[in-house]
From TrEMBL:
UniProt organism field: Cladosporium halotolerans
Segments forming domain Cytochrome b5 heme-binding: 56-158
Keyword Metal-binding: yes
Name of this protein: Cytochrome b5 heme-binding domain-containing protein
Entry's Gene Ontology cellular component terms: endoplasmic reticulum; membrane
Family the UniProt entry places it in: Belongs to the cytochrome b5 family. MAPR subfamily.
Source taxonomy: Eukaryota, Fungi, Dikarya, Ascomycota, Pezizomycotina
Length: 169
């Protein structure tokens, strides 16, 4: 080696090359997009309005037949159910529409959806169902159980003049 020749310069490799900076930027953006909270957080559905347990007489129950944007209620063995979710069945035009806003106990027990199964005198005593046989009572209990599983109990049915009916008016 001659003294006039300079030793070769050592090259230092740097990681800050334009390509590495670009790749790191893309990687950072992808990680951020994956881990950031989503803008559209899952919105909770609006809860239904609270239902107040009420004591109904037959005339008070009658308007709850699904007309005029009213909910659909029906009674079975003195328990009033909100069957509004089943409006297609119990509301106007449905196969069980004549039970809406009424005591449906006898009709359900007898498997009949005719008007003559309903008590005509709404101001009279409630149907005590004493003339029903064991098979009919069992059918009615089955319906009541089905309603209990599927629909909310919103009240109870008492005759006109009953002391509990007077408190809720």
């Amino acid at each position: 080696m001659s003294s006039s020749e300079a030793p070769p310069a050592t090259q230092v490799a740097t990681i800050a090359t334009p390509l590495n900076i670009l790749l790191f930027s893309l990687f950072s953006i992808l990680v951020y997009m994956r881990l950031r909270p989503s803008k559209s957080a899952t919105a909770l559905p609006t809860p239904p309005a609270p239902t107040v347990f009420k004591t109904f007489t037959p005339p008070q129950l009658k308007p709850y037949n699904g007309t005029n944007n009213m909910p659909v209620y029906l009674a079975v063995r003195g328990r009033v159910f909100d069957v509004t979710p089943g409006r297609n069945f119990y509301g106007p035009g449905g196969p069980y529409a004549n039970f809406a806003g009424r005591d449906a106990s006898r009709g359900l027990a007898c498997g009949s959806f005719d008007e003559d199964m309903l008590t005509e005198d709404l101001d009279g005593p409630l149907d005590r169902l004493e003339d029903l046989g064991a098979e009919e009572m069992e059918a009615m209990r089955g319906w009541e159980e089905r309603f209990s599983e599927k629909y909310l109990v919103v009240g109870k049915l008492v005759p006109v003049g009953h002391e509990e009916a007077e408190k809720d008016e």
